[in-house]
Automatic annotation (TrEMBL):
<dbReference type="GO" id="GO:0015035">
    <property type="term" value="F:protein-disulfide reductase activity"/>
</dbReference>
<protein>
    <submittedName>
        <fullName>Thiol-disulfide oxidoreductase DCC</fullName>
    </submittedName>
</protein>
<dbReference type="Pfam" id="PF04134">
    <property type="entry name" value="DCC1-like"/>
</dbReference>
<dbReference type="InterPro" id="IPR036249">
    <property type="entry name" value="Thioredoxin-like_sf"/>
</dbReference>
<dbReference type="InterPro" id="IPR007263">
    <property type="entry name" value="DCC1-like"/>
</dbReference>
<dbReference type="InterPro" id="IPR044691">
    <property type="entry name" value="DCC1_Trx"/>
</dbReference>
Length: 229
């Protein structure tokens, strides 16, 4: 009986081989299908063992799966979610103009340093989610006029003092340490005041009045240099 079963399997395998001559996929199955017979013995009845059939995976399909996997491995975090990941135990909040290219260089530097400290909360005043009520009543126009920072106790600091406080929180207090002296602080504030007054013009952006009007109308510009929302 076992011999008949073996013969039937061999016959089936032969048929598979004949049919596989015109089909590469069936040839692949045939090449990986084997029968192994054990010698006949009175104490061991005839039997056969079939090895598993290997089903090759199309290389191109495998690469597509890998590409899809890699593409979705690191989803893009929306801006709102990123801001919500700010440290809860912050000591100072930095209000910054996210549309100012030069300002963002400094913001990104502080943000990178803050990864080791977790003491600064960054708030983009240009974000549609910005709320003056959550930032000591500082509206967009006021915050655009000069740098503002808010301490954890609600105290608002501006100009060079704001920079000094921020730098102190990420181990760079020595950069602005000299501005603790009033004569130097006044001079530094004067220099910063000039920058704050002309920074829109320097960075190639329209006057604050035009920006406010555009925001009020909800205007969306295709040209990034035409207006900033």
């Amino acid at each position: 009986m076992a011999f008949r079963a073996a013969a039937a399997v061999v016959s089936s395998a032969s048929a598979t081989f004949i049919g596989s001559q015109g089909n590469p996929s069936l040839q692949s199955i045939h090449n990986h299908f084997r029968l192994k017979f054990h010698p006949f013995s009175p104490n061991h009845p005839q039997r056969f063992i079939s090895f598993p059939i290997y089903q090759p995976v199309n290389a191109g399909f495998r690469c597509q799966i890998r590409a899809i996997s890699e593409a979705t491995a690191e989803p893009i975090i929306p801006k709102k979610e990123y801001e919500e990941q700010s440290p809860k135990n912050w000591k100072i909040k930095m209000l910054y103009d996210g549309d100012c290219p030069l300002c963002m260089r400094e913001v990104n530097m502080l943000r990178e340093r803050n990864k080791s400290y977790g003491t600064i909360k960054f708030v983009d005043i240009c974000s549609e989610n910005y709320s003056p009520d959550e930032n000591q009543g500082l509206d967009y126009k006021t915050a655009m006029g000069r740098i503002h920072a808010i301490l954890s106790d609600g105290t608002v600091v501006t100009d060079v003092e704001a920079f000094r406080r921020l730098y102190e929180q990420v181990g760079l207090g020595w950069v602005y340490a000299i501005t603790k002296y009033k004569p130097i602080a006044k001079l530094a504030d004067a220099v910063y005041g000039v920058w704050a007054k002309y920074r829109l013009q320097i960075t190639g952006r329209p006057p604050i009045e035009q920006i406010l009007e555009s925001r009020k109308k909800g205007e969306v510009c295709n040209d990034s240099n035409a207006c900033k929302m």
